[in-house]
Amino acid sequence: MGAWILGTAGFVLYFFYDINSLKWQNKILSRFFWLGTACVLVSAVWAAAVFSDFSGRLLPEILLYGAAGVLFLVLLLYTLFFAIPFDETYVEENHSREACTEGVYALCRHPGVLWFAGLFLCLWGLTGEPAGGIYFLTMIFWNLLYVVFQDIWTFPRTFINYREYKRETPFILPGIKSIRACFFRGRKRKET
């Protein structure tokens, strides 16, 4: 229960961070993104520790969930902190800038939610406890709710090209066109 409360508090802090960045611009509240991230991270480790039960589990199953979880974690970190300009996104109070529309952000408008869901599903699978599903699925739900809020309220007020980006790029689930844009944009086709 404690991990659930801490993770939920992390997402509440994310909502306040977004509102603050556009409305209040309070210096203390501008740290809520990092505090929220710490809450979600600590809650995930806490839940994984509480719900872990490896008795009767096969090593290949544990390794598969672990490897997939690491892959989703790397994709999440890349998407949130390396695929976009770090200072403009997380340090500077910068309005009227352009949204990143290339790379993983050509795949869908919120690729981080895919990697977050994959990571938390892998953590649930790794723990082997059905009871842990309440925590892991709730965190995925809060993340989905947060990106809906960002898509409707935060990002249209932050990025000058967000309406056009919404028209051209799927919300969460990639399509054939967005997969091509993500992986093949800027590459010339070989002439036959």
TrEMBL record:
This is Uncharacterized protein. Keywords: Membrane, Transmembrane, Transmembrane helix. The chain crosses the membrane at residues 32-51, 63-84, 104-126, 132-149.
